[in-house]
Amino acid sequence: MLGKIYLDYAATTPVDPRVLDVMQPYFSASFGNPSSVHRYGQIAEAAVESARETVASVLNCRPDEIVFTSCGSESDNLALRGAALAMREKNGANWIITSRAEHHAVSKTAEHLEKYYDFKVEWLDVDKHGMVTPEMVKKAVCDKTALVSVMYANNEIGTINPIQEIAEICRANGILFHTDAVQAAAYLPVDVNALGVDLMSLGGHKFYGPKGVGALYVRKGTALVPHLTGGAQENGLRAGTQNVPYIVGFAEALRLTHEEREQRAAHVKPLRDRIIGTVLEMIPDSKLTGHLESRLPNHASFVFKDVDGNLLLQLLDAAGFACSSGSACKTGNPEPSEVITSLGFSHDWALGSLRVTLGKDSAPEQVDSFLKVLPSLVDQARKLNQR
Length: 387
Ligand SMILES: *Cc1c(COP(=O)(O)O)cnc(C)c1O
Prior knowledge:
Elements: E1 5-6, H1 17-23, H2 39-59, E2 66-69, H3 72-91, E3 95-99, H4 104-117, E4 120-124, H5 134-140, E5 145-149, H6 163-172, E6 176-180, H7 192-195, E7 199-203, E8 214-218, H8 244-282, E9 286-288, E10 299-304, H9 309-318, E11 321-322, H10 338-342, H11 347-350, E12 353-357, H12 364-386
Parallel strand pairs: 1-11, 3-4, 3-5, 5-6, 6-7
Antiparallel strand pairs: 2-8, 7-8, 9-10, 10-12
This protein binds pyridoxal-5'-phosphate.
């Protein structure tokens, strides 16, 4: 397609044709409203409930613990805002603990709760690999803590957090634990009981499902205050007629991901390692960002000293390669990303970030041609930077 090579699967993935196939009927022939009593409604409702069962079986939970939402961001919003408000109502707890390396869907929601709802936020520093350790969480929790939110795997730097251990600490202290697994779900197991989480966010388009659909796992007995009020859909936690085709697609994409997880990881991991090895060897003043081992198998990310990351992305795009400098959201401001800054890099390093993420259809030849051009493009970006 366009002679372009896509290396930005952490930003989004294409919809798997097998997923598109199962979605199709629910746009037209089976278009009913799941809340309707008649046969059209029954068919749509059956599709949503069957999707819920599929998701529940992958997550190893009950179907009524799954809330379908419009995206990963909405799931994060519902988890944080919903749990914080409910916990405060229940026992007066008004502290939220989260990390400095979270996705904006979590960090901006925490800021919002602080600004408009009078919550207090404790921001955990991450270690130099962008990891939140169980010790950090242990030190921070107190009897005023309503909720802890720490992401499963980081979208910008690929670091995988020790979610199970963090969940144990929260459980021992009677504190709710939410994890943003939107980026993790494509490659890591999402068994909520093995992980021990109370709330977990997922988003369809990061694992070959459609954009605009997500899910939130809500452990039975966890009180949430809904933020989309209206009808009683989704257990009263998320009003609005369900997006039937997208929910069906979400479930099928998650099912396929679960089924093919090991195979996909085995495909991308050696390619990722080739990228990391070659970049660090061939490009002077380059560093890996994130953890070397506890890292998503499809994820390589770097900083280059004295390089304008956005300029490098433009040079790469002109050469036919689609990469990212961290989060996909382009703001047009030359400030380094908060995640990269949280790792302790100085300004001259932090502005030169590059994220290269692989997918199930990435070919070794694509990686080869990328690695062939990257060193000279970094060099070119450096020279332009000095002017
Ligand atoms: C992509 C992403 C989100 C946002 O998901 P959307 O479905 O795009 O709203 C949240 N958290 C992480 C870690 C992500 O990678």
